[in-house]
Amino acid sequence: MLKKTGEFRVRSFEDGDEIEFLRLFDRMYVDYGGFTLKTPEYWRWCCLKRPDVEREGLFVVVDKKDENVVGYAVVGRSGNIWELCYDLGRDGEEIVSLLLGKVTRYLERVGTTSISFNAPREDHVMNHVCKELGFAVLPPRKMFLSVLNFRELVSLLVKSKKEDLLMRFDEVVLVKLKDAPFWVNDTVFIQISRDGVQVGDGAQSPTIRMETDVITFSSLLFGILSPFQSLIRLKLRVKPFWKTPTLLMLISSLRMKTTWFFPLSDYG
Amino acid sequence: MFNSKDEEDLKQLIENVFRDFLNGKYWDWKYKFNPDFDPSLVAIAEKNGKIIGCNHWLLRRLKISALTEVKAVLGADIAVRPEYRGRGIGKSLLLFLRSSKAIRDKGAVLSYMFADPNLSKSFYGPAAGYIPAPTTTISYFKLLSWSKLKNNIKAVNEKIKHESKRLEKLNLKILFQLSGAPQLLLKLSKKGIEDGETDLQNADVIVIGDLSTLAVLKGREGRIRNLLKALLTRKLKIKGGLFSILKFYRSFWLVEEIFREKVS
Q1: Cα separation, B225 vs A117, whole angstroms
Q2: Among A1, A104, A157, B261, which is most buried by a count of CB atoms within 10 Å?
Q3: What is the pLDDT of residue A13?
Q4: Three-class DSSP category at B42
């Protein structure tokens, strides 16, 4: 059963609400990979001006006491809820059920036959409300990634983990990508020493040489494949071989541990 | 590269390839009015002055971890005229943008896109090293009415009206109780298919599951294997007398026909 406190009410969209929407959206999704920081101008284009969105398809939940915005939904005539957010510090279940109730009635009125939206798997509030309201869980469209500049990506990762790397390693690693196409740098040097960390295209003689392919290296960096698995599958060659444990630890430190989420509005 | 005089041809191509697009309005909104639109990130394939393919990319800033943000490009709409497919034009369009000076100048580190997993396995992965993102996203779905299915029923009835022999022995009421959808009762008889009141008492067979199991009924390859898999993993349950279940199996081709077209 969904509880109701009667603290909130739903109103229609008013110009200027987008500032509060962005605050809610940022707070809810900022820790996910794939998060895009939106400006009000971008939001207006992405949601308000979307061809299937009408102003009646925007629902705002406010606190009855102070009229603060605590949730919103943007739904198009296509049946897609492009964005649905609630204030993490408030009663999310009531906010989400109010919004989904309004959205359903709106879509039934305009003759749309289905509703769909995306949410992170671990959002228990959405999960519970959707279960109560009879939603099914379907696999979403898949998101795919491809690295355009390995050197830059590794450099950003190394910088973000600099302190940890300096404490644990003193190596010069050469990563060789054997199937790199001509527009991707096929070598990445990672130099970690007392002088600091550096990523580039050339350095002093490497202490570890790693040879792999583009897909394996991408999968390692994005945390899809573990370094150990790639070694077992012979996707990774290390020279000298006794440096293998050090290299595996280094890659483990570098790899991203972020989970990715994208609302429907991010499709484009 | 894109030139403003290509706009109309491009819209036409996109509309022809992606039928769901909203008559040019969608292209205008997505690209022309997009604050991040950059014409240098649109690649066009031409033959004798006619546009036969295109690829659109959009520049974004994307978080890849709590502390790291990168410039990335969203691979948006890639389209090739049907008569030119299978000649490597799509791949060339993809590689052209990836290796372009525009991408290098913008400092993009990543490219990402949303696509059919099968297409990625066969096309995007080998062509440009795309890997699936470690995503936590799930999609919630609810069917509000079966009105589109009713149109499918009309079409199927029209198609089978001369198959009276095959339909002669069919007299079956199937109730679908799928989570995320209203109940649906299908009456199969020699007159064809009718959808009726969802009266549980009247059903000979009850199909219980969720909407994801609809794929089983869509007549894709290996449907019997998929059906068995769904039954064994209890994603789909079929209740009814043995005789009725056998009848359901015999009439499965008809159910398949109905669910083959879009229902939402």
Answers
A1: 30
A2: A157
A3: 97
A4: strand
pLDDT for the residue A177: 93
- Residues of chain A in contact with residue B73, where contact means CB-CB under 8 angstroms, are 148
The closest of A2, A7, A1 to A90, measured between CA atoms, is A7
CATH match of A8-140 with 3.30.70.270: no
Of A45, A219, A261, the CB nearest to B34: A45
Q: Inter-chain contact B139–A139, Cβ cutoff 8 Å?
A: yes
Residue A76 three-state SS = strand
Residues of chain B numbered 40-59 and touching chain A (CB < 8 Å): 58
- Per-residue pLDDT reduced to its tens digit, B106-145: 999 999 988 777 666 677 777 778 898 898 999 999 999 8
A191–chain B nearest CA distance, Å: 20
Classify the C-alpha dihedral B120-B124-B126-B129 as positive or negative. Answer: negative
Q: Give how far A66 is from chain B: nearest CA, Å.
A: 32
Whether A260 and B33 lie within 8 Å, measured CB to CB? no
**Strand-pair category, A187-193 with A196-200:** antiparallel
Q: Compute the mean pLDDT over every residue in chain B, rounded to the nearest whole number.
A: 82
What is the homologous superfamily of the domain A150-254 according to CATH? SCP2 sterol-binding domain (3.30.1050.10)
Percent over 70 (pLDDT), chain B:
89
- A contact test, residue of B113, B137, B178 with most A CBs within 10 A: B137
Please count the other Cβ atoms lying within 10 Å of the Cβ belonging to residue B112: 20
B114:A267 CB<8 A? yes
Measured torsion, CA atoms of residues A146, A148, A152, A157, in degrees rounded to the nearest 10: 0
Chain B residues whose beta carbon lies within 8 Å of the beta carbon of residue A258: 63-66, 134
What residues in B contact A163, CB-CB < 8 Å?
none
What DSSP state is assigned to residue A187?
A: E
Q: Is A223 left (phi over 0), alpha (psi -120 to 50) or beta?
A: left
Give the integer Cα–Cα distance in Å for A60 and A62. Answer: 6
> Between B135, B178, B210, which is nearest A260 by CB?
B135
Give yes or no on whether A8-140 and A150-254 have one common fold: no
Query: Contacts of residue B134 in chain A, CB cutoff 8 Å?
Result: 33, 222-224, 258-260
Structure tokens at A239: 């020279």
Domain residue ranges in chain A: 8-140, 150-254
For chain A, report the end-to-end CA distance as a whole number of angstroms: 36
pLDDT < 50: residue spans in chain A: none
Domains assigned to chain B: 4-128 (3.40.630.30), 147-260 (3.30.1050.10)
Instruction: In whole angstroms, give the CA distance from residue B149 to residue B154.
Output: 9
Out of B110, B139, B178, closest to residue A145 by CB = B110
